[in-house]
UniProtKB/TrEMBL annotation, chains A, B:
Essential cofactor(s): Mg(2+)
Top EC group: transferase
Name recorded for this polypeptide: Thiamine-phosphate synthase
NCBIfam families, A to Z: thiE
A matching Pfam family: TMP-TENI
EC number: 2.5.1.3
Length: 218, 218
């Protein structure tokens, strides 16, 4: 059976921004503050480092059974570390192939930032993808190549198509607690620096969760 | 059943050194010249690019059924692309975990360049690893972080331990046709630039194969 997924407040980890704290420390605090889903992402890590990082985050989530754990890109690491799923971008392995490797009992997230990418996502066999990451909402320093931003209206338009097809949606890119209130039409918001770079990740998560609760369509 | 493996002349691909030719073109020529095993390696490629590169090389090997195809590091790519095996370094996923993901019917190669790394390799459960890459024999520009070189004597000493345990061995690092004749005590030699950067990869492979044939213990 596929694990449950509550994407209301979805944290994507950033190892450099988390320093001097460990990623696991930030995750633990963020979950205490209301984060509902965690994705381990570290494009600079070796496969071994990403595996060990994922194990550490999995341990940090042991007391939070409802929080799904995704690994960015590395299907092998997700399988070995016992994560709940994988999140892939448009440059990663093809979604249908990733689903074949994952089997039916894990979650698959996919990024889609254009009408064409959303159409390709919706053309996949049902059950391939569980959640679509839509963005960037705004330009973001953690992904400088991700473009200038769709804006909340652009995100809501793409999300409506995915939701009509039964997929969950999260908005990503440049979201903080102030901006989160203007994001609508999605099942949740993703943040990176708004939590990983915060002096108090738990307080930052709490503020975000409160903002999301008043804004996001559930 | 695990695929056959003839590591006599083992080509590790380098996308940049192969240009303006494609890697698949270089592989096709190299196999015509006598290469017996191919490993696809591209540390700069996205997971998707590595997958597509591996498919292209697999197609190039379609007429050479005895040539085993390895993928460097990415177990997921190897599984999806139908490669014969994976080669991992000391910074990649742990060997026992990789074997668990690969299952019994694929090959696993592991790099070991020190006595301690060889001891760890030999302490793995039997059947985990099939072939050990020992090096660098000499300092090599394609892996500037790999150290100053074990020399042929150092390689032979490490290889003897692996061979006593029933593992196949290949020497790697700075090997060209002239130097290949001084490499002994292994089952084969690995090359990167000696073929990928050669003006005529088929001729380069033929010269290497001839040199290896006179030197390597089989």
């Amino acid at each position: 059976m596929r694990p449950g997924l509550d994407p209301t407040l979805y944290l994507v980890t950033d190892t450099a921004l988390s320093r001097p704290r460990t990623v696991a420390d930030v995750v633990r605090a963020a979950v205490a503050g209301g984060v509902t889903t965690v994705q381990v992402r570290d494009k600079d890590a070796s496969r071994r480092e990403l595996y060990e990082l994922t194990l550490a985050v999995r341990d940090a989530l042991a007391g939070a059974p409802g929080v799904a754990l995704f690994v960015n890109d590395a299907v092998d690491v997700a399988l070995l570390a016992g994560a709940d799923g994988v999140h892939i971008g448009q440059d990663d392995l093809p979604p249908a192939e990733v689903r074949a490797l994952l089997g039916p009992d894990r979650l698959l997230g996919l990024s889609a930032g254009t009408t064409a990418e959303m159409a390709a996502t919706l053309a996949l066999p049902p059950g391939t993808v569980d959640v679509v990451g839509i963005g960037p909402v705004w330009a973001t320093p953690t992904k400088p190549d991700a473009g200038t931003g769709l804006g909340p209206g652009g995100v809501a338009a793409l999300a409506a198509r995915a939701r009509a097809a039964g997929l969950r949606t999260v908005a990503i890119g440049g979201i903080d607690a102030a901006r989160a209130t203007s994001v609508t039409g999605v099942d949740g918001v993703c943040v990176v620096s708004a939590i990983c770079a915060a002096p108090d990740p738990e307080a930052a998560a709490r503020a975000l969760r409160s903002a999301v609760g008043t804004a996001v369509a559930r």
